[in-house]
Amino acid sequence: MFGRDRNICLVQNEVYEKQALVPAVRKLSLKEHQGISLLKQASIPVAPFGVARNANELYEEARKIGGKDLVVKAQVLTGGRGKGYFESGLEGGVQLVFSPEEAREKASMMLGSKIFTKQTGALGKLCDEVMICKRLFTRREFYFSITMDRHTGGPVAIGSSKGGVNIEEVAAKDPNAIVKCPIDIFEGMTDAEASSMADRMGFK
């Protein structure tokens, strides 16, 4: 007889080792500031920004950026930060501030505190980094991401002309506003596919 802990079975008088189902493991997770750094390296314009692990460091980064319109953003691997809340009592993981002193105050309430969003649930996620950037006043906002598609088993580009805030709600209310393009893992996205996606997203 075979013990249950050996995880084997008898099939047609032959013994086969059961292959354990290994859950998918995410090998690449980038925080916002890491993604922005990659865009900057690719010569894509980004807003001036800095990253800190304590409030005083953020104060210095705010002084380097200068100006009176700044944004402090919790760097946590979860969506919905803007509508989240911290166990420190602070409402929102994205805060508009108007001085280095105010930036330091907001950062002190984020760092070392858990943020709770729709994605984190009751467990929350600890915030150990914050980013500060210059506030930009945009005329239009688009959403674009590349993620893994479980149906095709490969990457898929997803875009929308309706901005990146509450994109889940946009997808639920207006599925036609979401543009998708499966990407061949060997060939990558072609120029024709990129142009077609840009057209469907409303770029002229």
Brief rundown of the structure:
The chain contains 5 helices and 12 strands.
What does this protein look like?
The protein is an alpha+beta fold and 204 residues long. Mean pLDDT is 86; it is low at 1-19. The protein is globular and about 50 Å long. The longest helix has 11 residues, at 55-65. The strands form 4 sheets. It has a 4-stranded antiparallel sheet with strand order 3-9-4-6, with helices on one face. Strands 5-7-8 form a 3-stranded antiparallel sheet, with no helix packed on it. A 3-stranded antiparallel sheet has the order 10-11-12. It has 5 helices and 12 strands. Strand 7 (114-116) and strand 8 (125-126) form a beta hairpin. The N and C termini lie far apart (70 Å).
**Percentage of residues assigned to helices:** 10-25%
> Based on CA inertia axes, which overall geometry fits?
globular
What fraction of residues sit in β-strands? 25-35%
Task: Report, as a whole number of angstroms, the end-to-end distance.
Answer: 70 Å
Rg estimate, integer Å: 22 Å
Q: Helix tally?
A: 5
Question: What's the rounded overall pLDDT mean?
Answer: 86
What's the layout of helices and strands?
Elements (H helix, E strand, L loop, with lengths): L7 E4 L2 E4 L14 H10 L7 E4 L2 H11 L4 E5 L10 E2 L7 E4 L2 H11 L3 E3 L8 E2 L3 E5 L8 E7 L4 E7 L6 H7 L4 E5 L8 H10 L4
Pfam families: ATP-grasp_2
Protein name: ATP-grasp domain-containing protein
Organism: Onchocerca flexuosa
Highlighted features:
204 residues; alpha+beta; Dna Ligase, domain 1; D-amino Acid Aminotransferase, Chain A, domain 1; 3-stranded antiparallel β-sheet; 5 helices; globular
